[in-house]
């Protein structure tokens, strides 16, 4: 399928600091990822998305970039990157980079120039405003990482806007030179051969031209994240952002077969607008709704129907269960339901993105206070993200084969048992479940690209059919711990069961599932 490899692909997110340390500093790097390519090929994923690897003071672990076209020495060199790209391509896998166009590091030469004086050539590259008439920040906008989104700069007597840390000043995307500069960054990597980008906070790129105050959020409750006090009505998801994204897409389309993914945390109704008019926006606006929805069969069934119904004609769906910002799925729903979640993710219609470590059921690791590294954990403890960024666990050795010295974040308490080496020898392990599901998805076009049809079900049961060219596969999942059954007007043969081995069992008009079980049934 030229031009749309990403429709049938399974994406795999790597957090480079935590995948594999090759140079012995306790932090993952590019050579480490290259060394683990055989693992990724055997697992059966199709494309790797690397969280940022560019030069950065690491205030937000690489989401604060000071040089967009060079690799941070922590991760290696451009030569290491080229080797990774070459070897990944040699195995038939793709590489996606993280593009962070909304903000730079405070150390980026563009910002240094911009803040030097009000007359600086790059002053307008960032968002500078005078203090409010009575003093204080220009408006009420809040940083997602706590406090006002405006930082006062003594030297020029103005505030600059930062949607995240003060060390991450927002670029001014209304400025044509900013757009052109970022397009050049994209071309630099696309020419090198990367297969596309995941674009950080794409819905933030344009802010209200008049900088109007954000309205209060009527649904805010004490205990919610502080920035949710206001609706980000004027600071994000502005109508003009779609033109900016259309331009990003046009740059990607200058090269053949490349992919543009947008990171977007919005309701499904708003999310689907990011496919753009005429589908000229993001190929895949990341769909995080499974992360945000309560884990119940009825809630998930409703969500799938809602999302499927909202998709514009021709738009391709996608699903995500976890990432480097959100609590690990295994801890959110428990080990047993994490298997149900894996089967859901890999059998729904649309491109799935796996988060490294979820294939061995890595839990959210409790990090002792003195080992917290995420700056956000200090400002908004509830948002701390270290627990989902811990090192990949490869084997039962001292630091799980991740690094020779102690790793930058602790391993999980059950690391001796929860690792790739132990799980690959256990047919019932999460790792082998992921491998089987990935291999089924590869072998059955009905799963990879087929249609989706919900089957009426009640209680804890979720069921649907995937179909393509005469092949029909039924997926039945039990979101509860008690047995559940479903009557349906079909006959078929079990191809995979989550618990025990029921494959080959023939089913006639009815599915009976143990608690936490799931079945994939090839229908006659
Ligand atoms: C979203 C990224 O996923 C997150 O890790 C980062 O902190 C913010 N954007 C700011 O770049």
What is the overall number of helices? 16
**CATH topological fold name of the largest domain:** TIM Barrel
> Mind summarizing the main beta sheet?
8 strands, parallel
Q: What is the CATH architecture annotation of the largest domain?
A: Alpha-Beta Barrel
**Could you give me the name of the CATH homologous superfamily of the largest domain?**
Glycosidases
CA gyration radius, whole angstroms: 23 Å
**How many β strands by DSSP?**
19
Helical fraction? 25-40%
Order of strands side by side in the largest beta sheet? Answer: 11-10-9-5-2-1-13-12
Number of domains: 3
Task: Name the descriptors.
6-stranded antiparallel β-sheet, Immunoglobulin-like, 524 residues, Oligo-1,6-glucosidase, domain 2, TIM Barrel, alpha/beta, 19 strands, 16 helices, 8-stranded parallel β-sheet
Structural topology:
Elements lengths: L4 H4 L2 E4 L15 H6 L1 H7 L3 E4 L3 E2 L11 E5 L6 H13 L3 E6 L9 H8 L11 E2 L20 E4 L4 E4 L14 H17 L3 E4 L41 H13 L5 E4 L5 H4 L12 E2 L3 H4 L4 H14 L7 E3 L8 H5 L1 H13 L3 E5 L19 H5 L40 H5 L5 H14 L1 H5 L1 E5 L5 E8 L2 E8 L5 E14 L8 E8 L4 E6 L1
Parallel strand pairs: 1-2, 1-13, 2-5, 5-9, 9-10, 10-11, 12-13
Antiparallel strand pairs: 3-4, 6-8, 7-8, 14-15, 15-16, 16-19, 17-18, 17-19
Helix pairs in contact: 6-7, 12-15
Bound molecules: 1-deoxynojirimycin (NOJ).
Explain this structure.
The protein has 524 residues and is of the alpha/beta class. The chain folds into three domains: 5-104 and 175-437, Alpha-Beta Barrel (TIM Barrel), CATH 3.20.20.80; 109-161, Oligo-1,6-glucosidase, domain 2 (Alpha-Beta Complex), CATH 3.90.400.10; 450-523, Golgi alpha-mannosidase II (Immunoglobulin-like), CATH 2.60.40. It is built from 16 helices and 19 strands. It has helices spanning 5-8, 30-35, 37-43, 78-90, 109-116, 176-192, 241-253, 268-271, 289-292, 297-310, 329-333, 335-347, 375-379, 420-424, 430-443, 445-449; strands at residues 11-14, 47-50, 54-55, 67-71, 94-99, 128-129, 150-153, 158-161, 196-199, 259-262, 284-285, 318-320, 351-355, 451-455, 461-468, 471-478, 484-497, 506-513, 518-523. The protein has an eight-stranded parallel beta sheet with strand order 11-10-9-5-2-1-13-12. A six-stranded antiparallel beta sheet has the order 14-15-16-19-17-18. A three-stranded antiparallel beta sheet has the order 6-8-7, with no helix packed on it. Helix 6 packs parallel to helix 7 (241-253) and helix 12 runs parallel beside helix 15. The mean pLDDT is 97. The structure holds 1-deoxynojirimycin. Residues 60, 63, 100, 164, 200-201, 263, 324-325 line the site of 1-deoxynojirimycin.
């Amino acid at each position: 399928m030229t031009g749309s490899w990403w429709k049938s692909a399974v994406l795999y997110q790597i957090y480079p600091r935590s995948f594999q340390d090759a140079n012995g500093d306790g932090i993952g790097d590019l050579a480490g990822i290259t060394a683990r390519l055989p693992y990724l090929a055997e697992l059966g994923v199709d494309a790797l998305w690397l969280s940022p690897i560019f030069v950065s003071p690491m205030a937000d672990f690489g989401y604060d970039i000071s040089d967009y076209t060079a690799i941070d020495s922590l991760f290696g060199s451009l030569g290491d990157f080229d080797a990774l790209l070459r070897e990944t391509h040699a195995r038939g896998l793709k590489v996606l980079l993280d593009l962070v166009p909304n903000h730079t590091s405070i150390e980026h030469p563009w910002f240094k120039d911009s803040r030097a004086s009000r007359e600086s050539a790059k002053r307008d590259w960032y968002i500078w405003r005078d203090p409010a008439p009575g003093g204080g920040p220009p408006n009420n906008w809040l940083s997602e990482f706590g406090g006002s989104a405006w930082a006062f700069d003594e030297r020029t007597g103005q505030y600059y806007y930062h949607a995240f840390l003060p060390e991450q000043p927002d670029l001014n995307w209304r400025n044509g030179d900013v757009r052109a500069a970022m397009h050049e960054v994209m071309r630099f990597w696309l020419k090198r051969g990367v297969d596309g980008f995941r674009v950080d906070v794409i819905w933030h790129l344009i802010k209200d031209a008049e900088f109007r105050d954000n309205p209060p959020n009527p649904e805010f409750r004490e205990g919610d994240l502080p920035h949710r006090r206001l609706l980000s009505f004027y600071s994000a998801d502005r109508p003009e952002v779609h033109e900016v994204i259309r331009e990003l897409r046009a740059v990607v389309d200058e090269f053949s077969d490349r992919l543009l993914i947008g990171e977007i945390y919005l309701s499904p109704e708003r999310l689907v607008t990011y496919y753009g008019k005429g589908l000229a926006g993001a190929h895949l606006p990341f769909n995080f709704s499974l992360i945000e929805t309560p884990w119940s069969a009825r809630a998930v069934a409703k969500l799938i129907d809602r999302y499927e119904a909202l998709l514009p004609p021709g738009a391709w769906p996608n699903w995500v269960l976890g990432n480097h910002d959100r609590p690990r799925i295994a801890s959110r729903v428990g080990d047993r339901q994490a298997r149900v979640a894996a089967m859901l993710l890999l059998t729904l219609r649309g491109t799935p993105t796996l988060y490294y470590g979820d294939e061995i059921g890595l839990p959210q690791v409790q990090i002792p206070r003195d080992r917290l590294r995420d700056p956000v954990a200090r400002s908004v403890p509830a948002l701390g993200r270290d627990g989902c960024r811990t090192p990949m666990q490869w084997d039962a050795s001292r630091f799980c084969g991740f690094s020779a010295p102690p790793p930058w974040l602790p391993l999980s308490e059950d690391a001796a048992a929860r690792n790739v080496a132990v799980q690959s020898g256990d047919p019932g392990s999460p790792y082998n479940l992921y491998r089987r599901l990935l291999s089924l998805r590869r072998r059955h076009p009905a799963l990879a690209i087929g249609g989706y049809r919900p089957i009426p079900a009640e209680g804890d049961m979720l069921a649907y059919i995937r179909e393509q060219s005469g092949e029909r596969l039924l997926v039945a999942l039990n979101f509860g711990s008690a047995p559940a059954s479903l009557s349906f007007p079909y006959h078929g043969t079990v191809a995979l069961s989550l618990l025990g081995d029921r494959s080959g069992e023939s089913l006639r008009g009815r599915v009976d599932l143990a608690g936490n079980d799931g079945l994939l049934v090839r229908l006659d």
